[in-house]
């Protein structure tokens, strides 16, 4: 805790143009700055050429669902947003700014974020409660011409699907046959379900479990869901082809994969329920700080592969493997949006990096230290944006990779240099 007040925050702005003398101010500010202003006035897309907008992301929250802490308010959520900005810069070379809003009203949030568009190349929505987060993301994706991303949905889904791809591959089961139980029907699992379907898992093979049990088309509250939470309603209609009823134990019986994004455990998932899953089962218990079931308990119950959200256990499902590379790629082609296809391209590439190094029960995903994953992710995301027609500019695969590699390496080397020169002092003892 003493590090936080010592540094008084985690990010700052830094210059990217030279100051050889005070004469340079006449170039970068008045009167020289008037020329790019007039050029942008004539062609608004030149803002991406003459300013830093193309490398800038806003990290926006209303403070209603901060980490596992809940609705703690925008000020209390600011340290998390700063941390996110740090990860954007160090892992993706992206300049990110935390913006904590003093409103919980969905329409006001939409209005404010839309009004920020001239300053940013992308928007990262962070820690906003559901179902409001679905509506806000959907509206902003429709109404803005820059990428809008909700990391609790698309980010978690991208990394989880990457882990799923390799886990299923390791146990040798065909995607079309696996039964997947998703425990928790919040923002993360709804997005994961959507991306799994896009990857090729039949929708009917999914079983989503919320606090009232397994979702299915005949559940008594389905009609209400249509008006209260239409995203969950859609999953109730198209998943669970076997019409499994009951709770978590019934949903896990015979399932090949369990993806839990629910509430901290242990004990949310019991050993005997894992034992009732199919042979060579896969268990992702991703609640923090305590997973829904301890990894060793899942293993003792017969799970072949276990993943969690924690760095002190193998197979950490970590959003930080996703958003820095995804945004790097989207920004480098000035994409209008980030599509599910772009997320899926990132997931497949993430899985491929780990596969090339050799999959094992304890290694289905790269770690953040394997930083070559980020330029690779950025490249496939940018290529998919070009292919899908949502990119403003086109570049070759080699150009994209070299650009992403250079920007990410520069961010890492800049931090290293600031530490070596003492501008970032060592932490207190």
Quick structural gist:
With 429 residues, this protein is an alpha/beta fold. 46% of the residues lie in helices and 10% in strands.
Percentage of residues in DSSP E strands: 5-15%
User: Ranges with pLDDT <50 over ≥5 residues?
Assistant: none
Number of helical segments?
18
What oligomeric state do these chains adopt? single chain
Summary keywords:
429 residues; alpha/beta; six-stranded mixed β-sheet; 46% helix
Structural topology:
Layout (H helix, E strand, L loop, with lengths): L2 H5 L17 H4 L5 H9 L4 H4 L5 E6 L12 H19 L2 E6 L5 H10 L6 E4 L6 H12 L4 E3 H21 L8 E4 L3 H13 L6 E5 L2 E2 L7 H7 L1 H9 L9 H5 L4 E4 L10 H5 L5 E5 L9 H6 L2 E6 L14 H10 L7 H18 L15 H16 L8 H24 L9
Helix pairs in contact: 5-15, 5-18, 6-7, 8-9, 8-16, 10-11, 15-17, 16-17, 17-18
Structure explained in plain terms:
The protein starts with a helix and ends in a 9-residue tail after the last helix. The chain is 46% helix and 10% strand. The protein is α/β, with parallel strands linked by helices. Helix 8 packs across helix 9. It is globular. The model has no long low-confidence stretch (mean pLDDT 96).
């Amino acid at each position: 805790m003493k590090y936080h007040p010592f540094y008084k925050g985690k990010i700052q702005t830094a210059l990217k143009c030279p100051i050889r003398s005070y004469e340079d101010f006449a170039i970068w500010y008045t009167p020289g700055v008037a020329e790019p202003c007039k050029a942008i006035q004539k062609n608004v897309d030149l803002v991406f050429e003459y300013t830093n907008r193309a490398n800038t992301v806003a990290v926006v929250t209303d403070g209603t669902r901060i980490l596992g802490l809940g609705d703690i308010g925008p000020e209390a959520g600011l340290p998390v947003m700063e941390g996110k900005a740090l990860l954007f810069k160090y892992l993706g070379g992206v300049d990110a700014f935390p913006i904590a809003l003093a409103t919980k009203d969905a329409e006001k949030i939409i209005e404010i974020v839309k009004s920020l568009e001239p300053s940013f190349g992308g928007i990262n929505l962070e820690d906003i409660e559901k179902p409001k987060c679905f509506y806000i993301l959907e509206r902003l994706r429709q109404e803005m011409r820059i990428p809008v991303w909700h990391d609790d949905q698309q980010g978690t889904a991208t990394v989880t699907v990457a882990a799923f791809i390799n886990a299923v591959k390791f146990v040798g089961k065909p995607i079309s046959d696996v039964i997947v139980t998703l425990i928790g029907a919040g923002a993360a699992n709804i997005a994961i379900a959507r991306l799994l379907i896009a990857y090729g898992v039949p929708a009917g093979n999914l079983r989503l479990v919320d606090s009232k049990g397994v979702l299915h088309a005949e559940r008594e509250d389905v009609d209400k869901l249509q008006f209260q939470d239409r995203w969950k309603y859609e999953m109730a209609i198209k998943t669970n082809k076997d019409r499994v009823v009951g709770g978590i134990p019934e949903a896990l019986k015979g399932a090949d994969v369990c993806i839990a994004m629910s509430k901290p455990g242990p004990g949310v998932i019991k050993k005997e329920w894992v034992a009732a899953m199919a042979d060579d089962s896969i268990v992702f218990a991703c609640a923090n700080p305590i997973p829904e079931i301890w990894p060793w308990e899942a293993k003792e119950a017969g799970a072949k592969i276990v993943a969690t959200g924690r760095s002190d256990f193998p197979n950490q499902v970590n959003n930080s493997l996703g958003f820095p590379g995804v945004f790097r790629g989207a920004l480098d082609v000035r994409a209008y949006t980030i599509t599910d296809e772009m997320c899926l391209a990132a997931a497949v590439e993430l899985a491929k990096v780990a596969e090339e190094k050799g999959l094992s029960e304890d290694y289905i995903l790269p770690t953040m230290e394997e930083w070559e994953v980020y330029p690779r992710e950025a490249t496939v995301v940018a290529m998919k944006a070009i292919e899908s027609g949502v990119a403003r500019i086109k570049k070759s695969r080699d150009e994209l990779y070299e650009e992403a590699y250079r920007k990410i390496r520069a961010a890492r080397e800049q931090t290293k240099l600031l530490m070596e020169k003492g501008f970032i002092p060592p932490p207190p003892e």
